[in-house]
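COURSE: Structural Biology Practicum
ASSIGNMENT: Worksheet 4, Part C
STUDENT ID: 0417
INSTRUCTIONS: Below are two proteins. For each, the amino acid sequence is given first, followed by its structure token string. Answer the questions at the end about the second protein only.

PROTEIN I
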Amino acid sequence: MCVNSDFLIKEADRCVKCGLCLPHCPTYQLARDEAESPRGRIALIQGWAAGDLQADRSMLAHLDHCLLCRRCEGACPSGVNYSELMDAARAYLPRTTPRWLPDVLADGGRQRMAMKLAAVAGKSGMQAWFPSAIVRRMLRIAATLSASESGSSTSLKKYYAAAKTQQGEVAVFTGCMGATVDRRAIAAAIEIITASGYAVSIPPSQQCCGAMHAHAGYRQRAAEQKRTNLALFAGKGYDSLITLSSGCGSYLADISELDCTVMDAGAFIQQIGGIGSLPLTEIRRKIAIFLPCTLAAMGQQKQVMALLQDLPGAELIELQGMGCCGGAGLHLLTQPHTGEQLVEPLIHQLAASQATLVATTNSGCALQLQTSANKAGLGISVVHPLELVVQQLQKT
């Protein structure tokens, strides 16, 4: 085995196999199989790094099923850096995710092409012609995006001045999919943050945060994306780097070279005073809230929930399920069966709640919940929490 296994063995050896992670692991809850748990996957990595196990199809499948939700990290008394261990192992192991997949999803031009193709394929039935199941799923999701993001094509400026006495300046991370998936959320964040006295910068030429490539084992490409983004955001004096998708936020928050805090947009707004002073009308709706694993990894779920609790007239219901919706980045495309099992209790809870909207802070979760709600015939829209706030702003 031609691999520098020192880090893998050292980090894996920190796991004492106590099992405190088990109740927090969604895939273990589904399978009740040790190989589908964090400590089981760590044992597999230990065995392979030591040369005692072969990286066969069964072993790779158990590792691939991991959602990297990081819920185990919060429960681990030994402080095992599980996500870093998994990323490092996947970089050395045989790749199971084709390189073209993160390459396409991380490229804005290819995303737009996919959405155009999806619109045509959806009307003509061409989706069934593609031999790759991943491509067929990608086109179905792209068709959902085309419908949900229609009318949101306003271009973003590089700089937005504070609407009142300036308290500071933040940068907004749009990443690779912001213009496709989070355009309305970005616009809402700009409106609220500038109204709160902060200028907003949106540096052009931003790259993907690197999470998709890193989690698929392509660490060199992830490192290139990291270098590009550091040149844009580090050393610029920003008070915070704001993300509209907590999947990006949780990955960026682990970059030690960033000299500003990485914050979910809703958590940042709550930190600087919340929405209580904004001129808001009553929403008078029952809203289901799903707080993603990645927001929990950032430690900012309480701030987002507190922000929404100040939305006048809102009746909030938090969706729980097994702790993860199953969207989990590329899992939405590569592990649909697991995703369907994990999202099912959330959809049942959503249907029973009679909520008319779902709010969540991660684009992958939003896609998973929207496509599953559509499939269940619920007729419910999934939005970013800040979209709800802006909709209730009294326009002057």
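PROTEIN II
(use this one for the questions)
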Amino acid sequence: MTKIRLSDYYRGNALKAGYEPLRTVGEIDPGDIMAPLDRASREHSDESIRHLGEDIKARGQLQPIRVYWSSIYSKWVIIAGERRWLAVQAAGLWKVTAIFLDNEPSAAEILSERLADSLLREHPEPMEIARGFRALMNLKGWNASDVADHLHVHRGTVSRALALLKLPEDVQQRVDSGELAPATAYELTKVPDQETQRRLAEKAVSETLTRAETASVAKAIGKTTPKPSAQPVNTAKRTIHTRDGITITLTASRQIDDATAVDALNEAAHMIAHRGERGAA
């Protein structure tokens, strides 16, 4: 397919490649679209794709996918809506409704588009959204409040999602699979250690505890957990030497891995920048 202006697309007039599309909505052949370039295609079950295809066939495509033009591949590349694109093809339909972006977006813009799309889903995937929030914070040097403001969501939504990333990986997988509800998993984050989080997650799943019941158990565990001593034990320290001869020291009462260090430095940079803005005002 050659790249054409949308107005000419409607008239069926194919123009030479190189024309910028208008940022608007139109229909396009699914074969002229390709999966996202920046990551492997997500795994979607055949059953879920088939059900969505049947729904689109019966009610129409209620939400367009979002694409941009790649001159390298001479195709439209999906930013958000890969599952809808697959479902349209599974249903044997010849057109998919899409929003055409003016220019190839940056990595942060693509991530923002996907997060906005995910938050609008009827059944959003909580861990995917949480990881997206974290990735956007790292890309932009933002804190949780910045992400919430940018995506127009409640700040509590972002902070609760980010809290899930502190759970053990196996507990996160239970949330990913739908075995453990995200609201219930959030209550586990209030338990002080990961082994207890695992045990409580198992109890919540096996006994199908509600969020309120899980919260009650977590609160009871908190009351029986010994209070930490006044003097910090095993304080972790990490020192970073910059090329300009500046030494930065990070200290915490827990291990400081690469991701934790990056988050702390990003938040510190944000605080310094905003303090400077207030001083100049």
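ANSWER KEY EXCERPT:
Q1: Residues 6-105 form a domain with the Conserved hypothetical protein from pyrococcus furiosus pfu- 392566-001, ParB domain fold (CATH 3.90.1530.10).
Q2: Strands lie at 25-28, 33-34, 65-70, 75-80, 96-100, 236-241, 247-252.
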